[in-house]
Amino acid sequence: MINKILNITQIAKKIDQQTHYNNTLPLLLQILDKTKNGYKLKLGNNIIEARSTKELQIGKNYLATIKENKNGEIIISNLVNRPRILEVIKDSTLKFEINELKEIFKDSKFMQNLEQNLEQKISIANSKDDFLFLTHSLIALNKKIINLIIKDRNKEAVLQIKKGIKDKVEFSAIFNNLGIINGSIYGNQTLVIKTQFNHIKKILESNIKKLEGYENFDEIHILYDEDIEILFDLYGDNILDIEI
After folding, report:
1. Beta strands at 190-195 and 219-224: parallel, antiparallel or unpaired
2. Which residues contact 61 (CB under 8 A, 6 or more apart)?
3. Other residues' Cβ atoms within 10 Å of the Cβ of residue 193
4. Which of 81, 168, 183, 226 is a plausible cystine mate for 193, CB 3.0–4.6 Å?
């Protein structure tokens, strides 16, 4: 069942990396300052000013859908907090490639080996961020939640997996350009995926048949839900719903 989650994550990571989705993927915004008429924002290499119906936090990073209307005005909607965990994992000493994880998960002692690996790396952590990530990952593991960094070229994603009651497994994947994608697999027969952005929902729907073992599921549901949260919040982020 965990291999199914890794396959879903692999599809999502390919979407996260592909350039031809750039016009529909959420973009990263940083709130620089408050102005007389709204907020000064950093969008890529550009500085723009926009209004907000809700208060934004200065210095905070958000993901948002960006469009230009017929009057040439920039419309920013579906604004959600970018999970802070993505900002602190760059230099982590515990990263895996998906194919590497597929092999590691075959070991029945994976959880035990991961715990030992975390304890060892905590003792030699090379930065405060790395120490906190490793420590929180160990706390998560004690709650039966696996917390991993998946590396692929120059981008990282976070994957969390939790074994639920009976045959249910939950997962949460956190991407640079896709935001949070949550999911549940029930008895290898029903797959439910939730995403924060409606555009991402549509992209996943068009790619789901690429999932290995797709035909073995009796039901697959891909849902749009702005309010999803990761399984284990290392840094206390809350998701917002703001339009500016």
Report:
1. parallel
2. 28, 29, 30, 31, 81, 82, 84, 87
3. 23
4. 183
Nearest to 86 by CA among 12, 18, 149: 149
pTM given for the model: 0.84
For 15, how many CA atoms within 13 A lie in the half-sphere containing its CB?
A: 28
Q: Give the span between the Cα atoms of 207 and 11, in whole angstroms.
A: 8
Residue 243, pLDDT > 70, answer no
pLDDT per residue over 154-208, tens digit each?
A: 778 999 999 877 788 999 999 888 899 999 999 878 999 999 999 899 999 998 8
pLDDT at position 238, please? 36
Question: How far is CA 52 from each of CA 46, 72, 80, 220, rounded to the nearest angstrom?
Answer: 18, 18, 13, 36
* CA 196/CA 26 separation, integer angstroms: 10
Quick one: tokens of 196?
């924060």
